[in-house]
Design a protein that fits this description.
By secondary structure, the chain is α+β, with helices and mostly antiparallel strands. It has one domain. The protein contains 4 helices and 7 strands; from the N terminus they run ααβββαβαβββ. Strands 1, 2, 3, 4 and 7 form a 5-stranded antiparallel β-sheet that branches. A two-stranded antiparallel sheet has the order 5-6. Helix 1 crosses helix 3.
């Protein structure tokens, strides 16, 4: 005759399972928290490098006239299509040439259209796989993007710059709160919002303004949200 589990034994098994699940969830939470903290350190580091460069050379990296492979000196780190072609990639070359950035980036490469490639011509994030950093000023302002140069933290789109979402809204709001006001539509840290349904799907809710956003909130209830951030580097 086979003997079944007693209620005590079943209770012990359930407790063990609960502890295992709790441990896994806690570990996942710690991992995500570490990614957030690392992202904040990276973003602050690159912001500081740009600020130091501006103080030393009275110009922005990529746009500077005093560095090899200079820009046009108009105060904007232009993306292809406006101003000096390729300033958004020259920015990292200028930071390398200045000696402030330990990594070496060569800026422009031959072959026409130049995509951003993390670790090759723009810095790759050590916090989130596939994410990278781009410096640029938009040719056309969209939504609540201000008329500033900024650091974009996103996954590079093929043949383009850093635009695509990669982190959950929960992580995005955590970074935003540590660095700014915790709102995706105001302050120094905001969500990349050009064609937000394509580039950052599920990241925003309570959207006002349609394609040309005027306000929105982080959709922290959406586990499938995909956010990309932008950090203004020359906003007073």
């Amino acid at each position: 005759m086979k003997r079944g589990f007693t209620l005590v034994e079943l209770s012990i098994v359930l407790v063990i399972i609960g502890l295992l699940i709790g441990g896994i969830l806690a570990a996942q939470s710690l991992i995500e928290s570490a990614k957030v903290s690392k992202s904040v350190i990276e973003m602050q580091r690159y912001k500081a490098l740009v600020s130091n460069f501006k103080v030393k050379y009275n110009s922005l990296p990529g746009d500077s006239l005093v560095m090899p492979n200079p820009g046009d000196g108009d105060g904007s780190i232009e993306y292809p299509g406006g101003g000096a072609q390729g300033e958004w990639l020259r920015a990292w070359q200028h930071l390398s040439d200045s000696g402030d950035l330990k990594e070496s980036y060569t800026g422009l490469v031959s072959g026409g259209a130049i995509p951003a490639v993390g670790g090759e011509n723009v810095p790759k994030s050590e916090a989130f796989e596939d994410a990278a950093y781009c410096l640029w000023k938009p040719v056309t302002l969209v939504g609540y993007r201000g008329n500033y140069n900024y650091l974009a933290y996103a996954v590079p789109r093929a043949g383009s710059l850093c635009t695509d979402g990669f982190m959950t809204a929960q992580n995005a709001v955590a970074i935003d709160t540590k660095m700014d006001d915790g709102e995706p539509d105001s302050g120094y840290v905001i969500v990349y919002n050009a064609s937000y349904t394509t580039f950052t799907p599920g990241c925003l809710t309570n959207v006002v303004g349609g394609a040309n956003l005027t306000s929105a909130d982080y959709d922290i209830t959406n586990p499938n949200s995909s956010c990309a951030l932008q950090y203004y580097i020359d906003k007073d």
